[in-house]
Amino acid sequence: MWLFNSNAMDVLVQPNALTYRVIGGVLDVFVFTGPRPADVIAQYQAIVGLPRMPPRWGLGFHLCRWGYNSLARAIEINDMMVNQSLPRDVAWLDIDYMDRHLDFTTDPVAYPTAAFGAWVQQLHANGQHFVPIIDPAISSTQPPGAYPPWDQGVADDVFIRAANGSIFIGAVWPGPTGFPDFTAPQTTPWWQAQLAAFHDAIAIDGAWIDMNEPSNFVDGDGDGVKKLPSPTPLPAAHSASDGDSVSAPTAYRGSGPDPGDPKWPPYLPGRLGGATLLESKTVAMSARQYAGSHYNAHNLYGWSEGVATMAAMEAVRGKRGFVISRSTFATSGVHNGHWLGDNEATWDDLYYSIPGTLTFNLMGIPLVGADVCGFGGPNTTAELCTRWQQLGAFVYGFYRNHNTIGKAEQAPAVFPDPYQSYMRAVLNDRLRIVPYLYTLFHLAHTQGTAVTRPLFFEFASDPAVVAIDTQVMLGNALLVSPVLTQGATSRQAYLPPAARWYDWYTGAAVASTGVTTLAAPLSTIPVHVRGGAIVPLQDPNMTTVRSALNPFRLLVALDTRSVAPASAATGSLFWDDGDSLQSYESGACLVLSWAATVSQASGS
Q: pLDDT band for position 229 (50/70/90)?
């Protein structure tokens, strides 16, 4: 059952009931009958839309850090990766590259535009790509004529309005800011014009849209902006994100100066935790958007920015778009991917990324992953980072290593051997499985299937798999059992007896199924191939672009329990140029399928 509603709500799951507590909006209720779990997800996606097909390079390894404080350092890190034969498809930059944190600018000292643009062109020549962070809030305090995004935005009337009709002003990284109203039809052309002008200088390949809940450093009414000293003090880290804890529901009776104002709802959903206002650290609930009051449209902000950004990026580049958003809503997967927010470099967060990834796959957003090795908290360790690189390679659709300013570097290139060699091996494994992974995304795009799946999707009749959340299926062929415990060199895992299993590394058939102990030295993440699958692979070479020039290979895992002439293994491949718009819909692609049969005489 799904309630399609954009207002703040609580969802209470009880033994015999499902309770929704909603503070407004339209109530559209859908019941999906299945009968299989995979059918439920396909039925849901038939309503919200199928996931967007990403460019193939988007499935490679991405590397970022908040703290690359100069172009020289960004270049140095990339050169270290290349010189040490560590694959890296995409270079990312956080807010370090901006001039005074202003969108669509570059720092004239740390990231001079001409040199910056030349480096991005060199990345392209190497088969790599580049994605920068772009926040929605636009500085409102630059001199007239000095900052076109604001000047043109005011002229085009793209900003959210306060209840009194003036432009609503909050505060984000550059200080006092306006918030574009992405539900207004004039905003997407304005946004596209800003991206196009920036792309002319720095040939960006995608966009990382952050702070789009939308985040505001002062409570919604904006009064706090008047009290901000100059220059605006900035927080030590990004504001809280999707990973915030959920508290018990909280009944709330507003005692503010105007109980009729939407900032004082009669009920405050428990998701807001200790907040005393519905508009705590975000836009005022009374603010006005084209789609209606912010009270009703708040949860649609990140979604609407994702729609506008994808449309703008594809228009600017003329190629398939790549957009990763922090804030999402139902149907976001039609337009963009997602990362799981500001996690920490802990073993617990390594584990929690698995249910997070599975959840977004079930919600039609398979291009998802957590910050590999951890964003904040303690410095990562070589062991934790190795295990996280392994997990990300086989579990995440979106595979990015990223951490915060002030923490130790955690790019694979900064670690000594043997850790670096272990990371190199799994980065090459990621490139090796790209043909299979790309095919899974094609199936998600055309049929609504999940890319990363819980075991009960494939083994629904096996009651033992229902509660398993430390193993996943990548598609229907690969069973991944990551190590999630510090110091562990083995782990218990469940290999469903309904299938035959083969070791990913050796190809040897597994003798026992059910609960079993798997060897897992630090060099290895346990992965098993399901009997009956044919998995397309490709020899790796530093990036998806270069690897695409290498030979394909087929990994055929026979299910010898089949009786001839039944197929003992089947598989498929979707392939195109990896970047063109609508390649499948226009027929500019290759779709292959294979079947292997067992000889009745030999039985093998």
A: very low
121, 112, 130, 118: which is closest to 208 by C-alpha? 130
Contacts of 516 (CB under 8 A, 6+ apart): 492, 493, 494, 495, 510
- Answer whether 496's CB lies under 8 Å from 459's CB: yes
Strand partners, 534: 556
320 vs 251, higher pLDDT:
320
- Quote the pTM value: 0.93
| Span of 109-118, 259-268, 442-451 with lowest mean pLDDT | 259-268
Report the alpha-carbon distance of residue 389 to residue 425 in Å, rounded: 10
For the sheet with 175-178, list strands across it: 138-139, 175-178, 169-172
Asked if residue 503 lies in contact with residue 510, where contact means CB atoms within 8 angstroms, the answer is yes
Q: How much helix, strand and coil, in percent to the nearest 5, is found in the chain?
A: 30, 20, 50
Sign of the C-alpha dihedral, residues 293, 294, 300, 303?
positive
What pLDDT shows up at residue 221? 65
Mean pLDDT of 129-143: 97
Answer yes or no: 344 catalytic: no
Residue with tokens 């550059």: 174
**Closest alpha carbon to 407 in 370, 373, 377:** 377
Taking alpha carbons only, the member of 191, 192, 205, 196 closest to residue 55 is 205
User: Beta strand pairing status for 490-495 and 533-538?
Assistant: unpaired
DSSP 8-state class, residue 268: E
Residue with tokens 């919200």: 48
**What average pLDDT is seen over the chain?**
91
Catalytic residue, candidates 213, 279, 371, 559: 213
Q: Which of 135, 205, 210, 576 is catalytic?
A: 210
The angle subtended at Cα 411 by Cα 127 and Cα 324, nearest 5°, is 60
Which residue(s) pair with 259 in the sheet? Answer: none
Concerning whether 213 is annotated as a catalytic residue, the answer is yes
Does the pLDDT value for residue 84 go beyond 90? yes
Backbone angles phi, psi at 390, to 5 degrees: -65, -50
Backbone φ and ψ for 235, nearest 5 degrees, come out as -60, 160
Burial (Cβ within 10 Å: 0-12, 13-18, ≥19) of residue 1: exposed
Rounded to whole angstroms, how far apart are CA atoms 498 and 460?
Answer: 11
Nearest to 73 by CA among 129, 35, 40, 111: 111
Query: What does the angle CA 7 – CA 11 – CA 12 come to, to the nearest 5 degrees?
Result: 155
Say how far apart CA 64 and CA 416 lie, in whole Å: 19
